[in-house]
């Protein structure tokens, strides 16, 4: 090394390129180490839990709903301890659990509504003894020719009035 490349403190002198590289690397290291707080994710998770509750998740999907609430509480605790990555991960899991609870609740509600419609459409379906019984003939059903011994004298189909 020559005399001009060493500073008075014993540190090597940096030219403008070295200074730029050093500051860029320090800046990148600072950005890589700091994770932004997952406040938006926590809010989205809380909203998903509220939506699941409105959809009836307490009744139709209690396990998923409870899991979502526990994970959101754990995410809040991780935020208080400044563990942002863990908080984000837990908040995402809480949101997924809440959305699953919502979908299961909506499915159960739709199945109940479909069952009620089927019951209204066929009120005898749920009655005992109705399973083996034939439905009653309606007025729109075609009439069968009367039973006769031997061969039938009808040559053409007839209407209800009896005229061809």
Automatic annotation (TrEMBL):
Residues 41-115 form the DUF4398 domain. Residues 123-150 have a biased composition (Low complexity). Keywords: Plasmid. Pfam families: DUF4398. Residues 63-93, 123-164 are annotated as: Disordered. The keyword Transmembrane does not apply. The keyword Membrane does not apply. Gene3D superfamilies: 1.20.1270.390. Residues 67-91 have a biased composition (Basic and acidic residues). InterPro entries: DUF4398. This is DUF4398 domain-containing protein. It comes from Azospirillum brasilense.
């Amino acid at each position: 090394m020559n005399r001009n490349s060493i500073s008075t403190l014993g540190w090597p002198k940096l030219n403008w390129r070295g200074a730029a590289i050093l500051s860029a690397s320090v800046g990148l290291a600072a950005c890589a180490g700091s994770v932004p707080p997952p406040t938006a994710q926590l809010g989205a998770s809380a909203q998903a839990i509220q939506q699941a509750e409105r959809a009836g998740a307490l009744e139709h999907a209690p396990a998923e709903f409870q899991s979502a609430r526990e994970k959101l509480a754990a995410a809040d605790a991780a935020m208080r301890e400044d563990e942002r990555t863990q908080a984000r991960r837990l908040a995402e899991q809480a949101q997924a659990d809440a959305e699953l609870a919502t979908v299961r609740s909506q499915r159960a509600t739709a199945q109940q509504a479909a069952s009620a419609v089927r019951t209204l459409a066929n009120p005898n379906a749920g009655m005992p003894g109705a399973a083996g019984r034939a439905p009653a003939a309606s007025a729109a059903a075609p009439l069968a020719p009367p039973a006769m011994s031997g061969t039938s004298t009808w040559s053409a189909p007839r209407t209800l009035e009896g005229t061809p």
